[in-house]
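Hi support team,

I'm opening this ticket because the web form for multi-chain structure prediction keeps timing out on my end. I have pasted the exact lines I submitted so you can reproduce it. The total is 539 residues across two entries, so I didn't expect it to be a heavy job. Is there a limit I'm missing, or should I split the entries? Thanks in advance, R.K.
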Amino acid sequence: MCRILQIVSLLALIALTLPSVIFLAGRMELDMVKWLMLLATIVWFVAATPWMWKDNGADQQDAS
Amino acid sequence: MDTEHQSQQTQVGSEFEREPVPRNALLGFKSFIGMYAGEHCAGTELMIGPLFVAAGVSAFDLIVGLLVGNGLAVLSWMFLCAPIATRRRLTLYYQLEKICGRRLVTLYNLANGVMFCFLAGAMVTVSATAVGVWFKFPMPSLNDLYPNSVGWVVAVAVVGGLIAIVAAYGYKTVAKFANVASPWMVLVFLAFGFVGLRQFIVVTNSEIHSVGDVWTLAKTHIWKGGEPLPGQVKFTIWHVMFFAWFCNMAMHIGMSDLSVFRFARKSWYAIATSAGMYVGHFMAWISAAILYAYQLHLDPTDTDVLPGPLAYRAAGLAGLLCVIIAGWTTANPTIYRAGLAFQALSPKSSRFKVTLITGAIATIAGMFPAIAMKLLGFVALYGLILMPMGAVVFVDFWLIPKLGLRGSYAELSGKTFNWAAGLAWFVTLAVAWVLVRFANVQIFFVSLPGWFVAAILYIVLSKFYQKQIRPVAAK
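Hello R.K., no limit was hit. The queue was backed up. Here is the completed structure from your submission:
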């Protein structure tokens, strides 16, 4: 399951970036870029949260 | 820029606050790459890139200045901070306590906490600009120092209040969320750049067939150089270089990241900071700058630096979310750390209450757009204020023993305030102030001579101080 989520997350990141690259090449409308980026954003957070949700804490820099 | 340094090691971090990190807790190189790459893509990058454009920077000055300045920052981490971190393996605060004494460290904490508060305020400001896209209230302009509408005040109060409450209640949840958001945020920043570039190509009818064509577009339309916008300081290559080098000065030359690299197996792991510098302080700044330059190209009178509308125009809701999340995930730990710094002044006070009060101060600061709009100068000031203590740590570790003096003298003498270190700090800041105020040296440049002033002062003053105050065992 984790492996599948990781693959989906990776695909979401590609889907997040690719529209802007295609837009740069002049082959996509900006509105479509915006929608695809939003979709990729939703997929990313849904797929990545279960396996990336870990404590990266900041206590080590505590000013104490 | 980034102010926060979190790492995966920190699950164990709190165990080693007053002892060297043991071998079995050391971390590999990859831990540091991921940490720095994500953390230097913060909400404030969306202010800094546009402010470079407002400062009238040229394409060559920006690109070369950033390449060199970020390289110098990486070298500072590698050769000033990490070698001490991997030899001593102590937090900055514990090391400072040994050198300076508890009371002087408390003062350092206070300075650190105040600066964190204002920085968090700037991050709240960035997030609040996203709210303005929805609610259409008047937002501050480039030269505004005070809040300019009730809507703005309410938006900052709501955003800042939420961040403060979350920081006080569930800080760690946001830290975990920041972990998840980090790769996404980096790529949204990249997309900002691609979209902005295309918009420039279209609006200028440029023909792009090679990298040379992109460069021509950059220098003729995006970063044209010339006069800065009214009220802004003109940025040359030297400004860009020194700003990129010193914007994280508190962390490398100021030695804050001793606390991070004490977990590194080797000091060269500090080269991992280049991931943060060239992603956040190169790509992200350039992307944000392109968006603002495009706004100016369309309407030269529209000089407002508002990350929310900028991101929304480029990437729609995803862009707007990026602004909110970038501001939120970085303001949250900043408020939390400022709270910790203040709590160190009064250890018995509740961390919850202190964090809430700190968040309230940051929120009030965020209502004043002056901090965000003058972020370039503020970041330089932040590094300058904390830098002298980094020089003290450096000298105490490398030079003091070679000069026949004793290191960690507060610990040896049992004193709670090492006047040699304290005076080195205060006098350096006074010298910097005089240089800025009376010698017309801009704040971006005083930190370099300031470091040498602090180092020399600490050596000279230690000679006197150690004669007067004897180690406990020698008394």
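A quick check on our side: The interface with chain B takes residues 13, 16-17, 19-21, 23-24, 26, 30-31, 33-35, 37-38, 40-41, 44-45, 48-49, 52-64 of chain A (CB under 8 Å). Let us know if the file doesn't open in your viewer.
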